[in-house]
Each structure stands twice: as C-alpha cells, then as structure tokens.
Amino acid sequence: MNAFKAYKACVPITWSPNLYITLVRGIPGTRRLHRRTLEALCLGKCNRTVVRSNTPSIRGMLQQVKRLVVIETEEMYKARKEKDANQRALRPPLVIRHLPVSASNSS
Questions:
Q1: Average pLDDT, rounded, for the chain
Q2: What are 53-89's pLDDT values in tens digits?
Q3: SS3 for 26?
Q4: Phi-psi category of 59—alpha, beta or left, where left has phi over 0 and alpha has psi -120 to 50?
Q5: Domain residue ranges of the chain, discontinuous segments joined by +
Q6: The dihedral sign for the CA sequence 69, 75, 78, 80
Q7: Helix (H) or strand (E) holding 54
Q8: CA dihedral defined by 58, 60, 63, 68, rounded to 10 degrees?
Q9: Are 27 and 38 in contact (CB under 8 A)?
Q10: Where is the Large ribosomal subunit protein uL30-like ferredoxin-like fold domain (predicted)?
Q11: Distance between CA atoms of 85 and 16, rounded to whole angstroms?
C-alpha cells in the first residue's frame, strides 16, 4: 500500500505555511544522502512527526526522501488525528436483555 494512501485524510489539499512530515519507512538500507537528509529534518524513528515551515529548501529536502516520508498540511494532519481519536474512543457497552421464558410457553 502506498504510504500516502495510508495517511490520506478526507480534506482538500490547500497551501499551508507549515508542513507535517512523518517518517513511514525505515532508515536502514537507505543511501547515506537520504539518511543525512532525514537527520537534518530531525526524523530518527518511524512514525515520528515533525513540523517544518513550507520553504523551498525544505521542499527540496522532501523531494529527495519522498518515498520514505508522508507530507501533510495542517488541515490534513488535524483531520487524520481526529479520525484516529474517533476510532479509539470508548463506545457505549452493548446491553442484551434476555426476557425470561414464561411457564405457559414452554409446555
């Protein structure tokens, strides 16, 4: 499955001053240049998210490691977090009431 599809939120993509960058693939086995780029972005472990400003230099760094990370705008990030919270929320318990069988119906 594509990493972006796994994290895609149901909101339109708009321009955002901040980018939420999440590392979704492992670092071992990658090129040294990619490892150093991830280190510069402060992404050391999988499923860690950092916030960076939307500048051309950051976008260039993300272009190098685009197969390792998921890039989201602020609206997409908030929608994904809200969706995850709704899935983890406690649901009311299922109550099943068994009515006693009357003696006249059992014979």
A1: 79
A2: 888 888 888 888 888 888 888 888 888 888 888 888 8
A3: coil
A4: alpha
A5: 3-8+15-84
A6: negative
A7: none
A8: -40
A9: yes
A10: 20-69
A11: 23
Contacts of 36 (CB under 8 A, 6+ apart): none
**Against a cut of 0.70, is the pTM above it?**
no
Backbone angles phi, psi at 32, to 5 degrees: -60, -40
Report the sign of the C-alpha dihedral through residues 13, 16, 20, 25, in that order: positive
How far apart are alpha carbons 54 and 101 in whole angstroms? 68
Residue type, 54: N
Token pair belonging to 55: 């500048």
Amino acid at 5: K
Q: How far is CA 65 from CA 10, 14, 28, 42, 62, in A?
A: 24, 22, 13, 13, 5
